[in-house]
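Reopening this ticket.

The earlier resolution said the output was attached, but the attachment link was broken on my side. Pasting everything inline this time so it's all in one place.
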Amino acid sequence: MLGPDDLAPVDEAILDLLHEGRVTTPYASEETDYSQQYVRDRLNRLLEHGVIRKVHRGLYELETDPRETE
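Inline output:
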């Protein structure tokens, strides 16, 4: 599981967007000013760690925020 120290600034920005609702790679890229490829790579990393889930092709939503402690 990812912890807060494992997150890059782009991950933090993506998580902030996901708190507002579902995102696509192009939308997250535009909102964060990171390239689509970089955002796609980071989304895949978050997906692999169970932080987000793929709702539909190219559409993601937040499962659990690693910045929040229990």
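Reporter confirms the inline version is readable. The chain has a mean pLDDT of 95. The chain has one domain: 4-62.
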